[in-house]
């Protein structure tokens, strides 16, 4: 399907944060853009904000003045709906209210030609519900940009029950033409990103509630071991706890209170206290002048007399860490075994979703120290470890000293199942697998959405594959047993992969 020709005008309704950004994107792609807002002066202000942002690029020599002038010529603030009549694509980015959006869509249907595509940038309202009263519901499609629209690559193209294939395909191709990374999703609560991302926040909030460690340490682990741009607490401080909590609550209620989406009391408390994050100076962290972000808890230089690393069997996903450790001047001995590492008194193993204490008892191995997952063990600057209640102080010291030899900062956290990154990745993959099973989007579109929409270092399903076809399923099963909660029930596709001995991409 061909994208909309650049000679076809585009209309954007609502000139707020999203509408102005979308107008900029369409204008930069070469379309004439009509920008309308019901608030007097708002459309002109939206155009001015585009001018201000891009003027800085011109001043830095990153954009030609002539290109900016031409772009601003193409963006035309208008005051009345009838001035949009020529548009071939109308994108609404007005207030998030079903009735107000429906009323606008009815007015647009009365005004626009039969071939005009109507798109909604809604982030939470069902496209199917929005189209229900339309005369031609097949022409309505979701075109969900991310904030700020000119910078964020992802566009979720949302198909409602009645949306025609051609309309969805044309909008998909158009988003691609505009330099975006489009994905297609069905109209389900949270679409892809706002649904699949819930565990990223939920698991860390739960770990915080369980006194596993403090927020600064969890953020540092998520960044420095997980490879995510921001930790969950600094990110929700940026998003605003009111907004993030509202999205979680809306997804939770839309899925009939499925405990997988359970909101956090810790975050509720912040919202109730008015600690909304950066925007009002206090969230998990303080942003008032002079305040400093707390340092993550890091094990001080640990003492150990050991100089030999014993690798027992296949270390699996820990193999790159073993290579990194082997390059630190240690003697390395390989022998058969269950895929664990021994260093001094310590026995180290990758978490499988059980608490270290439980696994130490099951494997009759008192000095067990579990290592968390890292996105890339060759580069991780921090790793979380958790030790069994039975482990000796020397074993913990030996384990820390081993990792420190490779320049890795160690965060020794309380013994909780799945540590931090492993349970985050496992629960993200679980949600992604369920979304794939339910036909929300394809496996590759789900992964692409999480990378392009949220800058995740890897899509959850490809990440799950990289850990082997059964590990994520095993971690979830252990989490489910540890908590006795439905929240961690493994998705059917993960279970199927395990028995088929294959991954999502293989
Ligand atoms: P905003 O409040 O910044 O802007 C909305 C604009 O729409 C306002 O200027 C308002 O005057 C105007 N407006 C309201 N009703 C109107 C009507 N009937 N006709 C014409 N103009 C009208 O809101 P924002 O953040 O730009 O959000 C707009 C839409 O985009 C919402 O549906 C929201 O859910 C969605 N969205 C928001 C994202 C965000 O991060 N802010 C991300 C993705 C989607």
UniProtKB/TrEMBL annotation:
Q: What superkingdom does the record give? A: Bacteria
Q: Which residues form the 3-hydroxyacyl-CoA dehydrogenase NAD binding domain?
A: 10-185
The gene name reads paaC
* Residue span, 3-hydroxybutyryl-CoA dehydrogenase reduced Rossmann-fold domain: 348-417
Q: Which residues form the 3-hydroxyacyl-CoA dehydrogenase C-terminal domain?
A: 190-287, 418-496
Q: What is one Pfam family matched by this protein?
A: 3HCDH_RFF
- Please cite one Gene Ontology biological process associated with this protein: fatty acid metabolic process
Q: What GO annotations for molecular function exist for this entry?
A: 3-hydroxybutyryl-CoA dehydrogenase activity; NAD+ binding
Protein name, as recorded: 3-hydroxyacyl-CoA dehydrogenase PaaC
Give the matching InterPro entries.
3-OHacyl-CoA_DH_NAD-bd, 3-OHacyl-CoA_DH_PaaH, 3HC_DH_C, 3HCDH_RFF, 6-PGluconate_DH-like_C_sf, 6PGD_dom2, NAD(P)-bd_dom_sf
Q: Which UniProt keywords apply?
A: NAD, Oxidoreductase
């Amino acid at each position: 399907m061909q994208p909309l020709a650049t000679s076809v005008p585009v209309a954007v309704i609502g000139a707020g944060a999203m509408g102005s950004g979308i107008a900029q994107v369409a204008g930069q792609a070469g379309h004439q853009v009509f920008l309308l807002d019901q608030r007097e002066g708002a459309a002109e202000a939206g155009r001015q904000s585009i001018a201000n942002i891009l003027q800085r690029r011109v001043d830095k020599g990153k954009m030609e003045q002539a290109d900016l002038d031409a772009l601003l010529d193409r963006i035309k603030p208008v005051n009345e709906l009838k001035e949009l009549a020529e548009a071939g694509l109308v994108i609404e980015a007005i207030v998030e209210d079903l009735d107000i959006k429906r009323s606008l869509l009815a007015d647009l249907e009365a005004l626009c030609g039969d071939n005009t595509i109507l798109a909604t940038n809604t982030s939470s309202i069902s496209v199917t519900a929005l189209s229900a009263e339309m005369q031609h519901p097949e022409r309505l499609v979701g075109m969900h940009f991310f904030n700020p629209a000119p910078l964020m690559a992802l566009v979720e193209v949302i198909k409602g029950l009645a949306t025609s294939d051609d309309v969805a395909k044309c909008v998909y191709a158009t988003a691609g033409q505009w330099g975006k990374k489009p994905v297609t999703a069905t109209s389900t609560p949270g679409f892809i990103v706002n649904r699949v991302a819930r565990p990223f926040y939920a698991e860390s909030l739960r770990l915080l509630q369980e006194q596993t460690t403090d927020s600064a340490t969890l953020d540092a682990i998520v960044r420095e071991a997980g490879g995510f741009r921001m930790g969950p607490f600094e990110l929700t401080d940026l998003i605003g706890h009111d907004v993030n909590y509202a999205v979680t609550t809306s997804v939770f209620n839309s899925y009939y209170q499925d405990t997988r989406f359970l909101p956090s009391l810790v975050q509720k408390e912040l919202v109730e206290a008015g600690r909304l994050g950066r925007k009002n100076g206090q969230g998990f962290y303080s942003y008032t002048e002079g305040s400093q972000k707390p340092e993550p808890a890091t094990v001080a230089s640990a003492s150990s007399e050991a100089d030999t690393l014993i690798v027992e069997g296949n270390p699996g996903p820990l193999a790159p860490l073993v290579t990194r450790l082997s390059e630190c001047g240690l003697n390395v001995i390989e022998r058969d075994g269950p895929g664990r590492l021994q260093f001094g008194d310590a026995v180290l193993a990758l978490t499988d979703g059980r608490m270290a204490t439980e696994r130490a008892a099951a494997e009759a191995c008192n000095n067990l120290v579990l290592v968390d997952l890292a996105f890339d063990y060759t580069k991780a600057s921090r790793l979380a470890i958790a030790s069994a209640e039975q482990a000796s102080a020397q074993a913990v010291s030996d384990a820390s000293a081993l990792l420190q030899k490779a320049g890795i900062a160690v965060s020794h956290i309380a013994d909780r199942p799945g540590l931090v990154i492993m349970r985050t990745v496992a629960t993200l993959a679980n949600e992604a697998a369920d979304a794939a099973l339910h036909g929300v989007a394809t496996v590759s579109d789900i992964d692409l959405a999480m990378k392009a929409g949220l800058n995740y270092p890897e899509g959850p399903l490809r990440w799950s594959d990289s850990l082997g076809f059964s590990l994520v399923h095993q971690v979830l099963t252990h989490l489910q047993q540890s908590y006795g909660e439905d929240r961690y029930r493994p998705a059917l596709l993960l279970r199927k992969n395990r028995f088929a001995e294959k991954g999502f991409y293989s």
